[in-house]
Amino acid sequence: MKIVIPDDYQDCVRTLDVFRKLEGQDVTIHNDTLTDLDALAERFRDAEALVLIRERTPITAELLARLPNLRVISQTGGGAAHVDMDACRRQGVTVMAGTGSPHAAAELTWGLVMAAMRHIPQEFENLKAGRWQRTLGTGLKGRTLGIFGYGKIGQLMARYGQAFGMNVLVWGREGTRARAAEAGLDVAGSKEALFERSDVLSLHLRLNAETRGIVTAEDLARMKPTALLVNTSRAPLIEAGALEAALRAGRPGQAAVDVFDEEPVTHHPLLELPNFLATPHLGYVEKDSYELYFGDAFDNLLAFAAGRPVTNLAE
């Protein structure tokens, strides 16, 4: 089977233990992301199968129409919102997804919290430049960790916060609030209260039509000038342009993110702000996660090739 794996930025897929599952297959790996339709169609022209790394390349109806050889898409992780399911159904393309793990993303999120609150990146740069102790960080004990969304990652974040002596405050849909209350956590009286009370506020929501832009400029303006906003979920959860304006206005005092509206990023106005910390969407980019994600994706692909029953998301 002719398999194409795009968007392997680190050229690491071939180094994974699970890559040996594809021995005997015709595998092509690309280490960059293309956005031009003609270039993508040319790159995928001969592919019978695509193994997609999360949401890095959208699979649109226009692209699918130019891929007559494509039979199957095997997605790493559990989500496939970037794939046009209706177009796959019309074209007879099977779409399969696997499982994921919340741990790598939660660990990265907590790393951003620590780095931002204690100004670790700035002090490292100061140290390299011969400047000693130039900032005054903020500790976490006794402060309030706000969690917007209490799924698997949000639950891990709550436990991390408790381990650091923080007061955990949760908000989300009715089911989210009920689960948090059952776990003995404080539930905010409203979304407004969550933003007003949090010293660190971390977003853990799925991006969909209901949550797109759910964090508004008004929400951010309610945050303390000493507060930190953390977003390792999806950039469009925040109203377009609102975060940059809020950071310039000083409410919240700083932000740390792992996600951007368009990726990969080479230039972005947020990167110029002194109260902004970012990583290049590293939440799930960790060896154990990759072994899990790609192991599932390759197993699904081989099951499809062998004619064994698979779950087709496009049905």
UniProtKB/TrEMBL annotation:
Family assignment from sequence similarity: Belongs to the D-isomer specific 2-hydroxyacid dehydrogenase family.
Gene3D superfamilies: NAD(P)-binding Rossmann-like Domain (3.40.50.720)
MF (Gene Ontology): NAD binding; oxidoreductase activity, acting on the CH-OH group of donors, NAD or NADP as acceptor
Stretches assigned to the D-isomer specific 2-hydroxyacid dehydrogenase NAD-binding domain: 111-283
Keywords: NAD, Oxidoreductase
Domain D-isomer specific 2-hydroxyacid dehydrogenase catalytic: from-to ranges: 17-313
Upper lineage: Bacteria, Pseudomonadati, Pseudomonadota, Gammaproteobacteria, Oceanospirillales
Source organism: Billgrantia montanilacus
Name of the molecule in the record: D-2-hydroxyacid dehydrogenase family protein
InterPro entries, sorted: D-2-hydroxyacid_DH, D-isomer_2_OHA_DH_cat_dom, D-isomer_DH_NAD-bd, NAD(P)-bd_dom_sf
TM stretches of this protein: none
Keyword Hydrolase: no
Highest taxon listed in the record's lineage: Bacteria
Annotated PANTHER family: D-ISOMER SPECIFIC 2-HYDROXYACID DEHYDROGENASE FAMILY PROTEIN (AFU_ORTHOLOGUE AFUA_6G10090)
Keyword Oxidoreductase: yes
Pfam families: 2-Hacid_dh, 2-Hacid_dh_C
